[in-house]
Amino acid sequence: MEEMESRENQREEIYSKVVRAGKRTYFFDVKSTKADDYYLTITESKKRFSNEEGKFHYEKHKLFLYKEDFEKFAEGLEEVIEFIKTGKAPISASQETSSSNFSDVSFDDLKEK
Question: Does this model's pTM top 0.85?
């Protein structure tokens, strides 16, 4: 039974990247579903000290990102990073598309003759 679970875990892990950033560590793990579709887990791990227990422990937060959401997630992430760097909200592709769908028509142009 343990051997089967071990094999399944090995099959799931496809690729991993660890990023250490100050007191936090980020784990980017590509995993596979039973249907062999890839998805991404992003784990933030912070080392914390528990006064109650008198020892360190790790606090973890996970985000699961599926293939069909990659593009929108990446666009949103790029947009907020650009805002942080410049202080200006960038015009996203969806905003450009929606504003170009409208024509500049005044009510005077709509009068019946």
Answer: no
